[in-house]
Amino acid sequence: MADPYSTLGVPRSASEAEIKKAYRKRAKELHPDTNTNNPKATERFAAATAAYDLLSDKDKRAAFDRGEIDDQGNPKSPFGAGGFGGGSPFGPGTGGFRPQGRAGATSFEFNGNDADLSGIFDGLFGGQARAGGFGRQPRPKGANINYRLEVSFEDAASLKPQRITLADGKTIDLKLPNGVESGTQMRLAGKGQPGPGGNGDGVVTIEISGHKYFVRDGDTVRLDVPVTLKEAVLGGAIRVPTVEGPVMLNIPRGATSGKLLRLKGRGFTAKSGVRGDQIVQLLIDLPPDDLALTKFVESWQDGRNPRSGLGV
């Protein structure tokens, strides 16, 4: 039996944040999209995902720590090995089922042991046992299906709906929630595997892609923008990118490198529904070996000491 803590490389005392951080690191290293020629990486990715799914669920984690369930979320028989005929109380497992979604867009996996066990726990440990046998147990739902959805930085910031392909081949448009971030999970009721007590759910875990020049800081988007010396000295409007397309930004006269300008409502939307801003930092970009600029500066006198505030 695998230990989910060892699989993620965290101690049993790890916080939720530490578990999430460890899983993100494992997922980044082992994701099938970046390890196409390494089947072992795919297996380890699946194991890390299963470990995270168990440890990120407070109830399942507590039950595992108490020794009531195994690493697959199955209850341990209170009567020892073979108490239920040597297997799960649900009968034979459904086996490994790992469909693949659209390349580069969605991947998902199904573990046949990922069933809803709440009713079984009630029966085994909740006092429903009677003399001579158990009372009638609730019929279990089908297993959940776990999906991984990669979302672009811009789509996540603008909450653009995402199309996802389900295990049955159908597609749906998924509305991203306020406050979305990597690791956010969305539940699709009834979109899991069928079972005696009804369908399980689909559980979608969001992974937001990085960006080549935007940086996320909470609900704020930060961007460094180079400007010419003339633009900094004289000011004027320049064209800058945002997560929803380029806009015109006015630079004040005499702007210096490091000056911060704000574009309202161009960041990520917080859980409260309030959208953050985009902060633009200006960086003066001087041309190399410009003779005219060199001659101008040689003849220009500036008696200030801009480092006086540093005590030098």
Q: How would you summarize what this structure contains?
A:
This protein is of the alpha+beta class. The protein is built from eight helices and 14 strands.
- Runs in which pLDDT lies below 50 for 5 or more consecutive residues are 79-135
Going across the biggest sheet, name each strand in turn.
Answer: 1-4-8-7
The number of E-state strands comes to 14
Global outline: elongated
Sheet with most strands: 4 strands, mixed
- Alpha-carbon Rg, integer: 28 Å
Order of helices and strands: HHHHEHEEEHEEEEEEHEEEEH
Which properties best describe this structure?
2 domains, 8 helices, HSP40/DNAj peptide-binding domain, 14 strands, 312 residues, elongated, Helix Hairpins, alpha+beta, 4-stranded mixed sheet
Account of the protein in words:
- Strands 1-4-8-7 form a four-stranded mixed β-sheet. It has a four-stranded mixed β-sheet with strand order 9-10-14-13.
- Residues 79-135 have low confidence and may be disordered.
- The protein is 24% helix and 21% strand.
- The longest helix is centred in the first third of the chain and has 17 residues, at 39-55.
- 23% of the residues are buried.
- By secondary structure, it is α+β, with helices and mostly antiparallel strands.
